[in-house]
Amino acid sequence: MTVADDSDVLVIGGGIVGLSAAYAITRAAPGTRVTVLEKESGPARHQTGRNSGVIHSGIYYRPGSLKARFAARGAAEMVKFCAEHDIPHDVTGKLIVATDRSELPRLHALVQRGRENGIPVRELGPAQITDYEPHVRGLAAIHVGTTGVCDFGAVADRLASLVQDAGGRIRYGAEVRTVGRRPGRVAVRTPDGAVLRAGALVNCAGLHCDEVARLAGDDPGMRIVPFRGEYYELVPERNDLVRGLVYPVPDPAFPFLGVHLTRGIEGTVHIGPNAVPALAREGYGWGTVRPRELAGTLTYPGSWHIARRHWRYGAGELRRSLSKHAFAQAVRRLLPDVADEDLTPAPAGVRAQAVLPDGTLVDDFLITQSPGMIHVLNAPSPAATASLPIGREIARRTLAVLADAGAMRA
Predict the structure, then answer these.
(1) How far apart are CA 246 and CA 231, in angstroms?
(2) Of the candidates 34, 37, 240, 388, which lies 20 to 30 Å from 103 by C-alpha distance?
(3) What is the mean pLDDT of residues 185-214?
(4) The dihedral formed by the CA atoms of 259, 263, 268 and 272, expressed in degrees to the nearest 10
(5) Pairing between strand 200-203 and 9-12?
(6) Average pLDDT in the 121-145 region?
(7) Which among 107, 137, 101, 138 is positioned nearest to 123, based on CA atoms?
(8) What is the pTM of this model?
(9) pLDDT of residue 410
């Protein structure tokens, strides 16, 4: 067994939230010794690097919630960060389109929610929709001008560099196997036998955050239930069907925004995601099954409550997962000109969704504390958009933990 140099803060997870937290700590308290532990060989290999790259405006989220506050603030900060660091980005705006009369009340409610969250929106009729997106059809829509796209993987890479420039360390291939603590001190062990010690630990482990919390002896009160988001792309010769970003009206009963159209920063049009249960926490395809993780999901009461409550919705998602034709039919509600052969499979992502034992899908960001530790237990979309203010919030709490740890040692 080897003992590494002590740190002030250990951050578990090298996704955009963990790296933003490390970056914010080094900025708020220069000289603080920060070590980021990432089990993969590089940053942003899971949720951060496998999303559609949308900088969300914050229009969807309950006024006063962390998502509403951090997304609206984070969108502006993300655009500024990308501009300052020459990271590809574009503020394209987006349409949220109602294709059925039953969706009109929800669309009007979004207009009100946007105004409550301080987000400028413009209501559109059918003719105005085609001014923005000539191939999109709908009964009504709203235009949200502050939405954009960027390369979140490149953002994570830059944050990693900034952390290292400030004296922080990033250890790749460093999966945390055990966590221990005593008053004022925490320690973790990695597969190479190294023991790393610090005054505070920040758990930003994403798909594995609840497992890390349990390793630390904390009861997170929830479980990550992984949902795979499946994407297609338009074949290159059909990319002209979509100019920017086009979303359906979301169903407030679900945390998913529905199959939408996203013209990425590189010009490729991504279509999705379809949301189905994943058979492993990193289950990016039906062929990836991890029996222990699957058993954990299937024996969790919350999973069965979700299944009973939302089986009709789930059946539709499953059908679209197994049938490209069914997926294309869903897309044609927004984009009538798309044909089955215009779609080609694209890499999937997995959403780390926190679920309570009663089957409630945790809707807001969830950050908890225990002695010496900060646990980020729910940070799906729009966490990439909101990562800079989330990082500052984590830094504020972490520095308070460090101050308490210093008082204990004194």
Answers:
(1) 15
(2) 240
(3) 96
(4) -10
(5) parallel
(6) 96
(7) 107
(8) 0.94
(9) 45
Question: Does residue 4 have a pLDDT over 80?
Answer: no
Q: Which two tokens stand for residue 38?
A: 């990432």
Mean pLDDT of the chain: 94
Query: Cβ contacts of residue 10 below 8 Å, gap of 6+?
Result: 35, 37, 186, 188, 196, 198, 200, 201, 202
Amino acid identity of 139? L
Measured CA to CA, the distance from residue 352 to residue 204 in angstroms comes to: 11
Give 56-59's long-range contacts (Cβ < 8 A, gap of 24+). Answer: 56/147, 56/381, 56/382, 56/385, 57/94, 57/114, 57/119, 57/144, 57/146, 57/147, 58/117, 58/119, 58/382, 58/385, 59/96, 59/110, 59/113, 59/114, 59/117, 59/119, 59/121, 59/144
Residue-level length of the chain: 410
Using 50, 70 and 90 to split pLDDT, how confident is the model at 251?
confident
Q: Please give the radius of gyration of the chain, using alpha carbons only, rounded to the nearest integer.
A: 21
Task: Please state, for a pLDDT cut of 70, what percent of the chain lies above it.
Answer: 97
Confidence of residue 2 (pLDDT cuts 50, 70, 90): low
Query: What is the pLDDT averaged over residues 380-405?
Result: 94
Residue with tokens 């002695």: 371
Q: What pairing do the DSSP bridges indicate for beta strands 94-98 and 245-248?
A: parallel
Residue type, 193: G
Instruction: Please give the structure tokens belonging to residue 61.
Output: 């989220």
Instruction: Give the pair of three-digit tokens for residue 257.
Output: 């925004």
